[in-house]
Design brief:
Length: 298
């Protein structure tokens, strides 16, 4: 094992902690600029899955780098593993996650799809009956049958386990790929690090901090887009949106509902009209309409 790049040394460990902090701030920035904005509690549930899986993946990357490096430079193999993980690995994770979610739907467990954290508890028939019998005592306009909305931590935990499983399967396929094209990855990494071959400390900072900040940041940003909830049932649109997004962002969905449900504005060009309608609130049509079925626009 080479002594010029010790990724498990005190400096390497300190840099890894710094990397984790930077990566966390990237996700905070994404939440600040996103539209519509998730509630912080929803954002926390989404990003915590990435945080846990990233710690798991990071130590796997370190172990693989040490295993694959042999007597060569650990930094070279860590960089090779990182580049593969943050590019092809993201694609693998996305495909595997979608396959898992298809399986969940097949077994009628769609409530464990990524981003589904809320339980909608509808009042039982007796409660409904009692409320309706007392309707004269309730101010006009009051929702007499209001469901209870609560966070389902069990669903979040199962999603966390499933996501770590997805990452593990992805890492397994990446490991097999490294065994096949490892010499190519090693050559690319050596070329990138060649200007710093005589600067062991700086090379360690490059490999463990500077490059990962950009590559992991891109990875986190993309993965957050397919880990958060983007599709809603009719019931969820009615009861869950206010729990998921900050209040001022709900107007975006309300304006969309008004557009979809207003027969006067429906036409063959409804998507074009929708784009004009939503342009005033700065929300992308593809993002905001993803949860609607095609029939809603016909």
């Amino acid at each position: 094992m080479s002594d010029d790049c010790d990724i498990l040394g005190p400096l390497g460990f300190s840099i890894q902690i710094l990397l984790g902090v930077f990566s966390f701030f990237i996700l905070i920035y994404k939440r600040i600029v996103e539209k519509p904005k998730r509630q912080w509690k929803v954002w926390g549930l989404d990003t915590s899955k990435q945080g846990c899986s990233q710690v798991f993946a990071h130590f796997l990357n370190v172990a693989l780098a040490i295993h694959l490096s042999g007597d060569s430079d650990e930094c070279v193999w860590y960089l090779a593993t990182l580049l593969l993980d943050t590019t092809i690995g993201v694609l693998f994770s996305y495909v595997i996650l979608k396959l898992v979610e298809l399986a969940l739907e097949h077994f009628q467990m769609a409530n464990y799809r990524s981003g589904n954290y809320f339980l909608i508890i509808m009042p039982d028939d007796q409660v409904k009956k009692n409320e309706m019998n007392n309707k004269d005592k309730v101010p006009a306009g009051t929702n007499l049958i209001k469901p209870i909305i609560k966070i389902d931590l069990k669903a979040w935990f199962i999603q966390l386990i499933l996501w770590i499983l997805v990452v593990s399967i992805s890492k397994f396929f990446l490991f097999l790929l490294q065994l096949v094209i490892g010499f190519i990855l090693e050559s690319i990494s050596q070329f990138i690090l060649s200007p710093f071959s005589d600067l062991a400390t700086f090379k360690l900072i490059i490999v463990m901090c500077i490059i990962p900040v950009f590559m992991n940041g891109l990875q986190f940003w993309i993965q957050d887009n397919f880990l958060k909830k983007t599709e809603f049932t009719i019931q969820e649109k009615k009861y869950v949106l206010s729990e998921m997004y900050v209040d001022e962002e709900l107007t975006n969905f309300a304006r969309l509902d008004n557009f979809v449900n207003n027969p006067e504005v429906k036409s063959d060009h409804c998507l074009d009209k929708l784009q004009m309608e939503m342009a005033n609130v700065g929300v992308g049509v593809q993002q905001i309409t993803k949860g609607y079925q095609k029939a809603d626009f016909e």
